[in-house]
Amino acid sequence: MIETIQTRIASLPEQRRQLFAQLFDVDVTTGHALPPPEMEGWVIQQFGALEPVREQTIVKIVNRLTLESALFNPLRARRPTRPGGGPSSIPSTSSGQAQALEEWIARELAEHDIFRDPERNTTADVFGRIRGQHCVTASNVAKYAGWHGLVIFDEPHPLRFGPAQLRDYLDVALRWLAAAQACDPHAIYPIITWNCLPKSGATIMHGHMQIALTRGMHYTHVERWRRAAESYRARASASYFDDLFALHAGLGLAIPFSAGMRVFAHLTPARNREIVFLAEQIGRPGDKETGRQGEDDSLSPGFLVSWSEGFTQALCFVLRRLIDEQGMRAFNVAIALPPLGPTPEDWRAMPIIARIADRGDPLTTRGDMGAMELFAANVITADPFEVAAQLRQGDTETGR
C-alpha cells in the first residue's frame, strides 16, 4: 500500500495536502533489474514471480523538519537469508522457528542469567534499590550516562508481560528517575529504553529496561524533535505534533485510542513497524501537586511526570498485538520524557513521546542495519499502512 502514497496524498483535502507538502517530501521511482534466463527459476522461487523484480517501486519519504527519512521497498523483505544467530540449527517452518527461539531463550536463562538474583549479581545505586510489585532496579555496571539504571523484571522471559507488569515497570522507572534527580539536581533530562532479545541490542536475555538521566541537553534525537516543533510553531503558528498526527490520521495511519492518546504508524520510521505514541503529560515540570505520590515521596524532587492509565494500556496493547499477531520478537522501545526541572529551552509543546520498532528475526545472521541506516537513510521493508490496518482490527479503545 505504500506504493499508493501519492494517490492517498492527492485524496486529502486541499488544506491537508498543503500541510503535507510543508512537513514531508515524497518521491516515488521505479528500479529495474533484468535477470538472465539462468537466474529466472531462482527469482521465481525467492520472490514469487519475475515482474516484481524486473520493475520495482521505491518510495522515499523525508520529514523536512527533522530530516528523518525512509526508503520503502517491500520486496527487500524477501531477500535470501540464512538463519543462525541463536541455536545452531533452525527449522524452516514458522512453528519450528518459534520452538527454536523458545529453546534458545530457555537455555540462555538457565546458563547465563545474571539477573536471576539482582541483589547479589547486580550493582546498586547510591540511593539503593527501588522495588515494585513485578520488578526491582539496579545500577548499570557499564554506564552511558552519569545516572544509568536498570529495571529488572521478576519474570525472566523477555516476551511474557501484560498490562499490570508493564505499568509497574514504568512506575518503578519513574521512581528511579525521581531518586536519581534528587541526588543530582542538574541531571534533568530522562529517557527510558527497552531492548528485547539480543538482536535488539540486549546483552542479557532476562527481561529488563534501561533508565538514563543526563545534564545540559536532552538526548539528541529527542532534542531534534523539540527543535522541529519549536521551529514549526514559530513559522506556522501551529502545533507540530497536532499537525503531524492529523496528517498520519488523514492518510489512514492512526490507531484509535481514548482522548489524550495519539498513536500512529510512522511515515519515516527508524526501523520496521515503528509506532509513535504522543501522550499528554499528567504532572508537568515544577507542578508538585500533580506528580505521582507514593511510598518513595521522600525521593521526589517535585518535578516528576506521571503516566496516564491510557498511556500504559495503549503501549501494552500495541506491543502485545505486534508480538502476538504480527510476529514481532526482537524490538526496541524508547520513551522520551520532558525535563524534570527548569530549562533554558522551551518544552511547553512537547508531549511524552514513545516509539516502538521491530528489529526483525531474532535468529537470523543478517543484520537489519547497515551503512545506509547509519550514514544515509533508513531502509524499510514493512509497509506502515499494513501495520496500521492490522493494529486497528479489534477493540483498541479498551485494549482487548
Features:
single chain; 400 residues; alpha+beta; HIT family, subunit A; 2 domains; eight-stranded antiparallel beta sheet; four-stranded mixed beta sheet; 12 helices; 12 strands; 20% strand
Descriptive account of the structure:
β8 (261-265) and β9 (272-279) form a beta hairpin. The protein folds into 2 domains: 2-78, no CATH class; 103-392, HIT family, subunit A. The two termini are 26 Å apart. Helices cover 33% and strands 20% of the residues. It is built from 12 helices and 12 strands. The chain is of the alpha+beta class. Strands 4-5-7-6-10-11-9-8 form an 8-stranded antiparallel beta sheet, with helices on both faces.
Oligomeric state of the chains in view: single chain
| Uncertain spans | 85-93, 284-303
The helix/strand class is alpha+beta
Distance N to C terminus: 26 Å
Q: Could you tell me the mean pLDDT? A: 90
As a whole number of angstroms, the C-alpha radius of gyration is 22 Å
- Strand percentage: 15-25%
CATH architecture of the largest domain: 2-Layer Sandwich
Q: TL;DR of this structure?
A:
This protein has 400 residues and is an alpha+beta fold.
